[in-house]
Model the fold of this input.
Amino acid sequence: MPTDRVIRIEAVRFDPLDGTFAGTAILRAPGGTVHRRRLTAPGDPAWTHDTAVSALAEQAHNT
Done:
């Protein structure tokens, strides 16, 4: 079963009250259409930007 491919993650922010990172995934569907999806993932405020982007990309693959 084909799934959407993550092109990139943008607008990454950390919410200290929830302890989560939020961002927008830019995705390409198997048919070629491009769409955006808001995502959140639990994280540590000590994470680097790259680690937070990786966590959000993983979340995009799992949803």
Helices lie at 49-62. The mean pLDDT is 91. The beta strands are 5-15, 20-28, 34-42.
